[in-house]
Amino acid sequence: LGTIWKCPQHLDPLPMHGRDLGVHPDDLMETPEPEQESKQEVLENKDVVVQHVNIQGLGRTKEDLLGYEISDVFHAKNLIDVMKKAHVARQRLLRLGIFKDVEVLIDTSEGADALPNGLDVTFEVTEVKRLTGSYNTMVGNNEGSMVLGLKLPNMFGRAEKLTFQFSYGTKETSYGLSFFKPQPGHFERNLTLNMYKVTGQFPWSSLKETDRGMSAELNFPLGMTNHTLKWEGVWRELGCLARSASFAVREESGHSLKSALSHTVSIDSRNSAIFPSRGALLRINQELAGYTGGDASFLKEDFELQLNRRLFWDSVLSASLWGGMLYPIGGQPTCIADRFYLGGPTSVRGFGMYSIGPQSEGDYLGGEAYWAGGLHLYTPLPFRPGKGGFGDLFRTHFFLNAGNLCNLNYGEGPRAHLQKLAECIRWSYGAGIVLRLGNIARLELNYCVPMGVQSGDR
């Protein structure tokens, strides 16, 4: 932040904008006049007191909500500490999603109660509009759709959000209504209520599924872990996607009602979700259906583990492991919509999308148990073209994937289950190029060599 100079009578307000706080060393390091040098004083390490924190520009936002986000500014001990804590408070205010812009001004305290080392901090906020909308078109899965969205941010003045999305496609129509409510002072603790109707097409199973349901989801951190508790009630309608659908898929067609409780715990220390170079991820999910109603009864467990380590020459070694098991309750067979699927670019590369495991007449039926693993080596492009710029979005990719998917006989013991999962392992290896698309997705172009192919795999 450079060196801050202060005149005895007044400290000019320091506007802070954006990630660098708008404080430029060139502006702060100007050489003072010789005759004024004796009157100036460095405040970088001098104790100061934040006497007042003001928020200007509030409309419908409740002040008690913002008190939790800015209270840490009062604990600052010197000017540099004030600027750092004010910047953190600004980021916390923007995280609420209710302000379009937040600016910070720091000035000396004025008035009868002003202390010689007192400071006032002012946050100038610009609230987002009461109603925002979006419109876009999407093309994919042999379908085009128009998507309309409406959002009511800060609905009741405490960072609540109501969102409605409507999708009209050439084949199907979907919609969803969502209400989001965070706990004041703890944005990570929040409640989400959903109502939706969504239709999915699964060509690898010649299956079409329409879900109409509602859910309640509670998110909260606990120590180093993040937890999600969820209840979901959904009316499912399964149908055949084509006349050539197998008899096994036709048997699954019809209506069912699922009411399920689920819990997810995760620990994520990765520095990036798209191109991690260090850190680890552990996610464990449990789902129990049938005890709160509905005609689907099962216990479902699955996990994901990922480890990343940086090596020499900016290369990164990544290892991943997934697994899961579906246990039917009450002697009822499991539904095709609840089973696990394996294969494709997100699991075992070189195989068709979800085209591994049990199948009937070319339609893949999923399995009740699976495991998959991967070993990946990411390196910079050869000769480092575009280093420091566009070229850093690309990585060379070498990989080895393996996995298996099957149904288990739960009358047998764990040793028999492990033996069955170890049989007929599918695996593949290859190389390619990976492109990072912002911080939301990645695009891979790979040459794959599938091995261990079994009859019926694609």
From TrEMBL:
GO biological process: mitochondrial respiratory chain complex assembly; protein insertion into mitochondrial outer membrane
Domain of life per record: Eukaryota
Record-linked InterPro entries: Bac_surfAg_D15, D15-like, POTRA
GO cellular component: mitochondrial outer membrane
Pfam families per the UniProt record, alphabetical: Omp85 (PF01103)
Region Disordered, residue ranges: 15-40
Recorded family membership: Belongs to the SAM50/omp85 family.
Protein name per Swiss-Prot or TrEMBL: POTRA domain-containing protein
Localization in the cell: Mitochondrion outer membrane
Annotated source species: Amphiprion ocellaris (Clown anemonefish)
